[in-house]
Specification:
Helices cover about 35% and strands about 20% of the residues. The chain has about 400 residues and is an alpha/beta fold. Helix 1 packs antiparallel against helix 2, helix 1 packs across helix 3 and helix 2 crosses helix 3.
């Protein structure tokens, strides 16, 4: 018998006073009165405490919104695209002007049996990651095979990917990848995006000749081309594909998408599919490692590295916009205040500094908040916006 039941029966059946029972069972008189009153109206159900679940849940998602979340999951998954809770949250904000937390989306997907939890899965935070500091600081490249619909021939897909932003620079289909094709596609990507400071690849013969016949024949055509351009060439260790993990992961995402498309019968059809996916991947697909930005946003925000340019020429500094809408920077021993705007108060920022060239970037979204040339003769670097809006002059009544 519970304590609540003993208290109620002592008053109702034994006829003891509520004050006496309260002292005996060390509860307040108000509690005894409340339990007895509930017993007289609800009967034996008063022996058990009421549920604390609220009668209404104002913040609960509507059935229509829950259905939209599940439909987005199914639609993205059927198209071979990432359909995780974070991606769905991004699509809700971008295309439906609705904000739903990632944890809430995950909870509803689990309830709809669209996600199966795996507590033994290794968390992403446990991996040690390297990322280039600037766009074009390093390009990754790799080749992967893909079958054509006729079943008798296949294709080889050659990819060039920027390490910093995951931006797909070039994705092309070929019957067989050779060193001349590697040089041609590399030069075409450079014509569009400038030359990188370095290139990372595996040890395929179209990338390097160091493992052919003991490496005694000198550099192959691609190696010599990089030497002539002053571009550093890097290679992964044999049997260590994770060194080129970003381009490997890109190819995995690409193949997942290709699997959901009609099978291409020719290289031209396959190339059309590759162009379509590259556009989706670069411009319309948020990337988790980029704080849910698209590769295009990450690639175009920061200055680009170039061959022979050491990345340490750019100094980085983290700060937060103060209550006056400013950040500070010390140059040649003098402190300067840089105006950002009061609307950005409290915003975390990353400052890129190269001599007097200053770029201030939103640390979370990657948005470029301000780009200026520092005036070392001035303490405050104004935003250039008028301090006060122009006043409207009142005309006297005629």
């Amino acid at each position: 018998m519970s304590k609540r039941q003993q208290v109620i029966l002592s008053v109702v059946l034994e006829g003891r006073s509520q004050a006496e029972v309260a002292r005996s069972y060390q509860v307040s008189t108000a509690t005894v009165s409340r339990w007895v009153a509930r017993y007289r109206t609800d009967g034996d159900t008063a022996f058990q405490p009421r549920s604390r679940r609220p009668h209404t849940s104002p913040n609960r998602l509507t059935d229509e919104l829950i259905e939209l979340i599940v439909n987005l999951r199914d639609q993205l998954d059927s198209n071979g695209l990432d359909a995780g809770p974070a991606t769905i949250s991004w699509h809700l904000e971008q295309h439906h002007d609705t904000h739903v937390s990632i944890s809430t989306i995950r909870r509803h997907l689990i309830a709809a049996r669209r996600i199966t939890t795996n507590p033994r899965k290794r968390p992403r935070s446990s991996y040690t990651r390297f990322q280039a500091e600037l766009p074009n600081q390093m390009w990754q490249t790799d080749m992967t095979h893909w079958p054509l619909a006729n079943g008798t021939t296949g294709a080889e897909i050659l990819t060039w990917l920027d390490d910093h932003s995951r931006y797909a620079l070039s994705v092309t289909a070929h019957r067989t990848v050779t060193a001349p094709i590697v040089v041609t596609t590399f030069d075409h990507a450079c014509d569009q995006h400038q030359h990188p400071a370095s290139v990372l690849s595996d040890n395929g013969l179209y990338y390097t000749a160091r493992f052919s016949r003991g490496g005694t024949n000198g550099p192959n055509r691609f190696e010599q081309h990089l030497i002539d351009l002053g571009i550093e060439q890097k290679h992964s260790r044999p049997n260590h594909p994770t060194t080129c993990g970003k381009v490997e992961r890109f190819q995995q995402t690409l193949k997942k998408w290709l699997t959901q498309q009609p099978a291409a019968t020719t290289l031209d059809e396959l190339q059309h599919q590759l162009d379509t996916f590259t556009n989706i991947y670069n411009h319309h697909r948020p990337h988790r490692s980029l704080n849910r930005r698209t590769p295009t946003q990450a690639y175009t925000t920061l200055p680009k590295a170039s061959p022979g340019q050491p990345t340490h020429t750019w100094r980085t500094r983290t700060d937060r916009v103060d209550t006056t809408g400013r950040v500070t920077l010390r140059h040649n021993g003098r402190l300067h205040h840089i105006g950002i705007g009061r609307t950005h108060t409290g915003t975390p920022i990353t400052m890129l500094i190269h001599n007097l060239d200053i770029r201030i970037i939103h640390a979370t979204t990657g948005e470029l908040l301000r780009h200026l040339t520092l005036d070392p003769t001035r303490d405050y670097q104004p935003t250039g916006k008028p301090k006060n809006p122009p006043r409207k002059h009142k005309h006297p009544n005629p």
